[in-house]
Amino acid sequence: MFRDRLAQEMRKADRGAGQYQGWLDYLRELTLPPQSIVVEISEGALQGGADPLLGRLAQCRMLGLQVALDHFGSGHASLAYLKRYDIDQVKIDPSLAQTLDGEGGELALYEAIVAMAHKLGLKVVAEGVETAVQRALLVDAGCDYAQGYMFGRPMTAQELEKLALR
């Protein structure tokens, strides 16, 4: 829910750095650093003149928020995006994990993406991880983080709070 709200806010007209102040105040109240929020941007949003979006991303970076390039490997993004835009993380598209079993070329793709991202100083998130085999292969490939049904299904904020309090 928070991620969806953030995505909606990022699409609204540019209102300056003050638009994020509420989030930063809330993080301070929780004694969390600004890096606790990761703004995700899709490859497609960067194509074809994304100047207003780039200004908002620069504001996020100045405030200490992290920026992730989402669904990497699924679109037509140039590898130059990885250096051109000030991002912290690459989130590999979940479609690559669907057939990741160690026997096909998907593992080689993950290894190449991880090596390239790490050389550029970026963290790597594998999306769509559903099995222990996929997780083990990604750990061996050097992937920094993973998300997917193996770790948890989508849940409401109340369900997350209940889980966290266990």
Compose a concise summary of this entry:
The chain is of the alpha/beta class and 166 residues long. Helix content is 43%, strand content 14%.
Question: Can you put this structure into words, describing what you see?
Answer:
There is one protein chain. By secondary structure, the chain is α/β, with parallel strands linked by helices. 43% of the residues lie in helices and 14% in strands. It has helices spanning 2-11, 21-29, 43-46, 51-62, 81-84, 106-119, 132-141, 157-164, and strands at 38-42, 66-72, 89-92, 123-127, 145-147. Helix 6 (106-119) links the parallel strand 3 (89-92) and strand 4 (123-127). The longest helix is centred in the last third of the chain and has 14 residues, at 106-119.
Q: Average pLDDT value?
A: 82
Strand content: 5-15%
- Name the overall outline: globular
Order of helices and strands: HHEHHEHEHEHEH
Quantity of strands, as a count: 5
Key features of this structure:
alpha/beta; 5-stranded parallel beta sheet; 5 strands; 14% strand
Topology:
Layout: H1 2-11, H2 21-29, E1 38-42, H3 43-46, H4 51-62, E2 66-72, H5 81-84, E3 89-92, H6 106-119, E4 123-127, H7 132-141, E5 145-147, H8 157-164
Parallel strand pairs: 1-2, 2-3, 3-4, 4-5
